[in-house]
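During the reporting period the student researcher (J.K.) took over the structure-prediction task from the postdoctoral fellow and processed the backlog of single-chain submissions. One of the processed entries is reproduced below for the supervisory committee.
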Amino acid sequence: MSRLPLIAGNWKMNTTVKEAVNLIKKMQSPLSKIQGVEKVICPPFVSLAPARAILKGNSIKLGAQNVFYEEKGAYTGEISPLMLVDLCEYVIVGHSERRQIIGETNDVINKKLRAAINVGIKPILCIGETAEENESGKTQDVLGRQIFTCSDKLYFLSGMVIAYEPIWAIGTGKSATGEDANQTIRFIREFISRLHTPDLGDAVRILYGGSVTATNISEFMSQPEIDGALVGGASLQANDFVSIVQQTSESKRLQ
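J.K. obtained the following structure tokens:
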């Protein structure tokens, strides 16, 4: 099955509104010219509205970095899916930084997935193992448990994307090899096929994330199971992010 590649930039807690607007303006024209790749940028909440205004009618899509699981109520500081639905098409859910720093559990992440899908926002579900889990051979067990939290077929049929981000490779400068990442993502795809159906396993887009740069992106995009990337630091540099998207387009067009 042909899966449209997706490159998403996670800006994390970086850029003021002014800086975000300037960065989008630098990326906007060159990114718009690249075909064959779905392009998503995920700025901080405070920049979503101005970003939406700039990108109106553009092929570049917006994503949020998080969402709460209730639509409204006494949850000071949280952002509900109803607040996001008119601003973005995607939302990152379950990023390892929120799991580790904020203490989000699989159960909380499951509720967030449901909340996003209920209003029509597509989640990018992040899964990944620590260095200790990787070195002790527990990668597949960890990933299997994380995937099982979103085991309802509705999630996949609603366009959910999975991002495999080994925790030991996020923001460390380390990254898995293309071959190793491809092997792990093949396991994820096969796990979903066994859990549900082969068609669902074949259809779901699975990204790689973890110190992805303009220098190493081709190594990952040359692998058949990897459908794109969730990019961190490199997405804050306009030229680097454009290069990542362009190389993805070229690599996947040749497959």
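The committee noted the following: Residues 6-235+248-253 form a domain with the TIM Barrel fold (CATH 3.20.20.70).
J.K. will present the remaining backlog at the next meeting.
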